[in-house]
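1st attempt posting a full record on here, be nice pls
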Amino acid sequence: MIRRAKPTDFLAVAALDRDAWSENREATFIPDGEHAWRLWCEHGIVVVQEDGDRVLGAALAFPTLSGTFCLHKIFVDRSCRGGGVGTQLMEQILAAIDEQAVDCFLTVDPQNEAAIRLYESFGFIERVYVNGYYRESEDRFVLTRPKQKG
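the predicted structure (as tokens):
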């Protein structure tokens, strides 16, 4: 079952985030702590996939000052990957963003071809390459999904 995250989900989501980030090419630090997830679960758009009381995946989006939304994170427990959980999370988070009738953007490692294909299949069609987006060695594509007509 996929549902909107509750503030009480923040510890489970933060634990999944730490595990997912450990596979990153630049995994020497944890980008977001539990305190950030506590705020996001209450004030952002966060959807989670759960099985009983276990959170199996999550997606996070938040509004920006420019009026667009940033799809900041989507990740799935290692044991559940390849089973459609990520696709379901994308569908739910984008439906919530579409209710706002705004453009949405995300960043992705240019070498993560599987993620790029997934994002493009969901309408992220504009692509800009940014050298050193996070750190000197961390380049990113910024992919944008135009506002969907309702």
